[in-house]
Amino acid sequence: MLTINTFTPLTPLHHPLFEEAKVKVWMKRDDLTHPEIQGNKWRKLRPHLDLLKQKEYHGIVTFGGAYSNHIAATAAAGHHFGFPTIGYIRGDELAQRPEKWSHTLQQAQAHGMQLKFIDRQTYRQRHDESFLKKLQQQHPHWLILPEGGSNPLAVTGMTEVMTQLEEQCLDWTHLYTAVGTGASFAGLIRANEANKAHAEKSTNPPEISQNPQSCCQIHGIAVLNEAEYLLPQIENWIGQPTKQTTWQLHTNGACGGYGKTTAELLETQQRFEQAFQIPLDPIYTAKMVHAFLQHLKAQQIPANSRVILYHSGGLQGRRKTHALITE
Ligand SMILES: Cc1ncc(COP(=O)(O)O)c(C=O)c1O
Question: Which of 196-200, 312-316, 317-321 has the highest mean pLDDT?
Answer without folding.
Answer: 312-316
